[in-house]
Amino acid sequence: MNVITVFPKFIYLRKILLILIGLIPNLSTAQEIINTDSHRLEEVAEGVYFATGTGDIYTMSNALIIERNDDVVIVDSHITPEAGRALLDSIRVVTEKPITTLINSHFHYDHSNGTPAFGPDIEIIGHEVTYEKLTADPENEHTFQSSLRRFDGTVNRLQTELNNATDTEERRELQGQLAYWQRHVEAQEEIVFTPPTQTLRDKMTLYRGGREIQLHYFGRAHTGGDLAIYLPDEKIVFTGDMMLGGISYMGDGYVAEWADTLQGLKNLDVELVLPGHGPGFTEVERISNVQAYYTDLTEEIRRLKNLGYSSEEAAARADLRQHAETLGVNQLGANVEAVQRMYDIWDGKIK
Ligand SMILES: [Zn+2]
């Protein structure tokens, strides 16, 4: 267990504050990084840990661990029960308290398929749409199916590369990668889609155990039921995939509504955003950058559709390069799956 500090500037200010007022005994525990066998746990506030996979096991998404006086609440459970168990083991490095509550940020496989690892008695809170998705036909959700094809493709590619490799070092490297992805593909066999046991539509607040945890639904965005998990005292929000460091996956998204939804997020008093993938960030203006992208993408695709272009043509022609500086959009074009979905929504094929 290796402990190093993060947010050095903040720590520095805190230390000065400590020296000035000469009390607050327990501050040294906050803002640390704890490396477990499978996770990097960043203590972003006292008893609140942002969990990201170290790569030893495939977790794919981030999770949040929130300690209360007598129990633990987690947000998201990773991609497989095996990855969920690794998260459970990592939680045990920082606390022995029982894990009583799991919040689903949204229904996607990589955030919810680890849920069985936490046992049958855990309370699972999610949006109504998450419940609908996980009780309908989650096995055949196109995003889940395309992930299965992608992982199979990775295994097949590595197998072919290994067959063709002659260099010993290269073979060893490929064998390691192949074993890693094969392990993940096998871990998928164990998936049991597990829906929320309790749902909300717009807002819910948990007050138990000396911690206020707000669950907000601001509208459709990355899915039809994204929740922002907000800790008002700590000024921290876990955003799942409705807000990443940059542009999110849009294959189940509502691009035309997304910017409005993010306005709700911006109205929260937040100092740290913890996304479902990638590192946390303090630059709240990133929300405005992606809002502008979704707004411009909507306008551009509607313009091209009105000119009679097919979704494929529109995706190829869309010019969003005004977002090069903020979001790295240097090339002409937009994600074809996202554009197809926008067409389907406008044509009434998707509600
Ligand atoms: Zn997602």
From TrEMBL:
Domain Metallo-beta-lactamase intervals: 60-277
Keywords for the protein's UniProt record, in alphabetical order: Coiled coil
Keyword Coiled coil found: yes
Gene Ontology terms describing biological process: antibiotic catabolic process
InterPro entries referenced in this protein's UniProt entry, alphabetically: Metallo-B-lactamas, NDM-1-like, RibonucZ/Hydroxyglut_hydro
Coiled-coil region list: 148-175
Database matches in Pfam families: Lactamase_B (PF00753)
Gene3D superfamilies hit by this protein: Ribonuclease Z/Hydroxyacylglutathione hydrolase-like (3.60.15.10)
Cited SUPFAM superfamilies: Metallo-hydrolase/oxidoreductase
Family: Belongs to the metallo-beta-lactamase superfamily. Class-B beta-lactamase family.
Entry protein name: Metallo-beta-lactamase domain-containing protein
Organism in which the protein naturally occurs: OM182 bacterium MED-G28
